[in-house]
Design brief:
Helix content is 41%, strand content 16%. It is built from 14 helices and 17 strands. Strands 4-10-9-8-7-5-6 form a seven-stranded mixed beta sheet, with helices on both faces. It has a four-stranded antiparallel beta sheet with strand order 13-14-17-16, with helices on one face. Strands 1-2 form a two-stranded antiparallel sheet. α5 links the parallel β5 and β6. The longest helix is centred in the first third of the chain and has 21 residues. It is globular, with a radius of gyration of 22 Å.
Length: 407
């Protein structure tokens, strides 16, 4: 199935925006949803809407089977050892905060080190900043190479026997850089620390094997990989999840409640208090089925071809600067001297082209890049070279417009 055929499976893409065919280049913010995902969630609400793990009636059984079936799909998708290591959350941000509040706050203290980078999304930056403040731990940063990448050598020089936790994105949402998390995890473990991976920009675009990476925690979101919003995953090694404290308390995560004390259910339900995100999990399961039917290797290769073509075309525009390394995931972040990124995005929108403009929830990285904001075009399995041609045409129009206005 080629990209044009895949595109037909996404209802939202078959429309005009501002009088032009929609060109959606903002999948790094959120991807669009195929009809298979929409129908799976609709079927749940229409045919077997019920709570899970509670009733013994038929609808409850069907709902529980759908919910736990989705957990098994996630386990296979990331190659976790067991479903007990797969926790459903609201998304990557929630998953990382669970680790910060449930694990780090209890096992990190004064004199310990937390190591992150200036490339991180705020969701993988602020939780560790706050834990350092509250525990007295030292927050350290791995120095970046000239192109914004993270090298094993720089990590080796930064991580010490005092380093208790390293948190790093697998793929940068701004630079598209793919970080050597497997090699860095080996360094972390050699010093007795744990490795936390923000996989939000990796899981939709490449094969992920948490056992091969040997990361201790891995977080990702459904909405960036053709799934619904409001559902995410926290993978954790069983031994660490068992030591970790729940962050949310209430029904269904308890084993026994007494007047003055309570005990928790076994994994993974220990971390899933209250009515879970049932339709979201079922939608995520359908999304996994969908992307695996295309093939993760095929998706990555398609994006590689698109980003290579995009960088080649964009470099032909005078005054346009691309940020990040040559080897990257499927996105291009850039500035253009004639126009502010927000103006670029606004003009492109009038042409039906959707891109992202701003600091991309990465203000420390913007400071390192010496800019206040950038524009970003990000690609997914439904994009084509024609989309990139439309982007280039729109950028040339933007350049000409602002060049004339301020000439």
């Amino acid at each position: 199935m080629n990209a044009k055929e895949i595109r037909e499976l996404f209802p939202i893409l078959n429309q005009n925006v501002n009088g032009h065919p929609l060109v959606y280049l903002d999948s790094a913010a959120t991807s669009q949803k195929p009809v298979q995902v929409i129908e799976a969630m609709d079927r749940y609400y229409r045919e077997y809407n019920s709570n899970v793990h509670r009733g013994v009636h038929t609808l409850g059984t069907l709902a529980t089977d759908g919910y736990e079936g989705a957990r098994e799909k996630v386990r296979t998708f990331i190659n976790a050892k067991e479903t007990a290591e797969v926790i459903f959350t609201r998304g990557t941000t929630t998953s990382l905060n669970f680790v910060a509040q449930g694990y780090a706050r209890n096992f990190i203290g004064e004199g310990d080190e937390i190591v992150i980078t200036e490339v991180e999304h705020h969701a993988n930056f602020i939780p560790w900043q706050q834990i350092a403040k509250r525990t007295g731990a030292t927050l350290k940063f791995i120095p970046l190479a000239e192109d914004g990448t993270i090298t094993v050598e720089a990590a080796e020089q930064t991580i010490t026997p005092n380093t208790k936790l390293v948190a790093m994105g697998y793929v940068s949402n701004v630079l598209g850089s793919i970080n050597p998390v497997k090699e860095i995890a080996q360094i972390v473990h050699r010093h007795g620390g744990i490795m936390v991976v923000d996989g939000a920009q990796a899981a939709p675009h490449m094969k992920v094997d948490v056992q091969d990476l040997d990361c201790d925690f891995f977080a990702f979101s459904g909405h960036k990989m053709a799934g619904p919003t409001g559902i995410g995953v926290l993978y954790g090694k069983r031994a660490l999840l068992e030591k970790m404290e729940p962050v949310e308390f209430g029904g269904e995560m308890i084993d026994f409640v007494d007047l003055y004390d309570s005990t928790w259910k076994e994994l993974p339900w220990k971390f899933e208090g209250g009515t879970p995100i049932i339709a979201g999990a079922i939608g995520l399961g359908a999304a996994i089925d969908f992307v695996e039917s295309i093939g993760m290797d095929a998706i990555r290769e398609h994006e590689h071809q698109l980003v290579t073509y995009a960088m080649e075309r964009l470099r032909q525009i005078d005054g346009l600067k691309i940020y990040g390394p040559e080897k990257r995931s499927g996105l291009v972040t850039f500035t253009m001297k004639e126009a502010h990124p927000h103006d670029i995005a606004t003009v492109l929108d009038t042409e039906g082209i959707a891109i992202r403009a701003g600091h991309h929830c990465c203000q420390p990285l913007m400071k390192w890049l010496k800019v206040s904001s950038t524009a970003r075009a990000s690609f997914y399995l439904y994009n084509t070279e024609e989309d990139i041609d439309a982007l280039v045409k729109g950028l040339i129009k933007t350049k000409e417009y602002f060049g004339n206005v301020f000439s």
